[in-house]
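Action item from last week, closing it out:
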Amino acid sequence: MVVDDDPLVLDTICFLVTSMGYQAHAAKDGSEAIDLFEARSASIPLVVMDVEMPRLGGVEASQIIRKMEPSTKIILCSGNTRQDVWQADPDAFLLKPFMFNELRAVIQKLLPSRGGEVLPLLPGD
């Protein structure tokens, strides 16, 4: 799942994730991400989430997701290096703007593969 309130950033990260062979579902803020995660938690192994968003920010949303499913991998992204980011205990942090190869390396590190098979971020229905 990819979560960002900026439509251009959201679309770009979804495109990058898709170009890696994964499937991605987009959420425009933390509240929408929580709703989606509640409905599909078993099928979302990784979340790429912006820190600063309206309604519910990434730090708070990631803490809720972590309580719901501790094994979910969380990558927080921000243009600022806020101290409270580490309260959420993310698996990784990317400082915006980041390069595609940085995102790819973090995702490949966090998502195990099975014999070269690519595991989707959100499996198809």
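Closing note: The mean pLDDT is 86.
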